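Batch 3, record 17
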Amino acid sequence: METEDKEIICKECGFVFVWTKGEQDFFVEKGLTNTPSRCPVCRKKKKVRHTFTNNYNITCATCGKKSTSPFKPEQPKKVLCQECFLAQEKEQAD
Ligand SMILES: [Zn+2]
Ligand SMILES: [Zn+2]
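Prediction for the assembled complex:
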């Protein structure tokens, strides 16, 4: 099947970007059947957000402050807020 460059409107920012033949071939090679719905910039942004977003609500075991963490707390009772975590690190270092 012949492929050709496709214009796609990013569903995130509305930017019209070109999905090139080369990229389409790459998708096929990887066994991907879905069409990208975001422009390269938003795709990148999403990755970054995914890495750095504070997703999990935690309550600090030391000061009781509510905070968020990008990591899923494995032991919720031992979770510390960033300040207490850093303070503890410092104590251990001394
Ligand atoms: Zn976009
Ligand atoms: Zn704390």
